[in-house]
Amino acid sequence: EHLQTQDWLQLGIAAAKTAGVIFGLFIAARILVTALHYLSERQQGAQNLAGHRNRYNDLLGRLRVALGCTIFFGALLLLGQLLGLSDRALHIVWIPAVISVAFYVARFAAGTAHLAIDVLFDLSDSLSRVESPLRYLGRLVHLSKVTKRTADYFIYVGIATWAVDTIKPDTWASPAGRL
Q1: Which contacts (CB < 8 Å, 24+ apart) does range 4-13 have?
Q2: Is 170 left (phi over 0), alpha (psi -120 to 50) or beta?
Q3: CA–CA dist 68, 74 (Å, integer)
Q4: pLDDT tens, 154-166?
Q5: pTM more than 0.70
Q6: Closest CA to 28 of 85, 69, 77, 80
């Protein structure tokens, strides 16, 4: 059968919506790349991070991946809504989106916590001369690994609880795991 004018119009609208989402995705990606490049340039002048440049750049890469994953799945879900996919189909895309974003955000957050702990303990010599409670930090350098593992625990359990609660709300773990 021949396509009606209304069918062509609906196809054109769907194509325009798709093109709009792709254009928005391109703009968001360019903003992300520009912001990360700016952060990388600013880090070059930071004296406190001089010994941690490789880890800082690795963290920027993890942030890029986490934000890229968020933008990709957000655009995919928005496109699905604009094209009128069923709630069931959107939920099928929603589950891997939440899991993927949670995974990459958790990796970035744990890496950030490790870098912050290392920088703080590296500054312990400078802080020992300042009259504040942080001057005692130099005596606790041997606890840096335990501190990192504790931060990992809180980050990973918190994000995993959020992901499970987002996918399937009001489960037994919802009130128990909120941090």
Answers
A1: none
A2: left
A3: 10
A4: 999 889 888 888 8
A5: yes
A6: 69
Structure tokens at 156: 């990973």
CA atoms within 13 Å, Cβ hemisphere of 28: 16
* Spatial distance between the Cα atoms of 155 and 23, rounded to a whole number of angstroms: 34
- Tell me how long the chain is: 179
Any residues with CB less than 8 A from the CB of 172 and at least 6 apart, and which? none
d(CA 163, CA 177): 11
Tokens found for residue 98: 């939440």
Q: Which two tokens stand for residue 168?
A: 């399937």
Q: What is the pLDDT of residue 81?
A: 84
When computed from its CA atoms, the radius of gyration of the chain, rounded to whole angstroms, is: 23
Over residues 115-152, the pLDDT tens digits come to 888 887 777 766 667 777 766 766 677 788 898 999 99
- Please give the Cα distance from 8 to 129 (Å, whole number): 75
d(CA 169, CA 179): 16
Which pair of tokens denotes residue 132? Answer: 């504040």
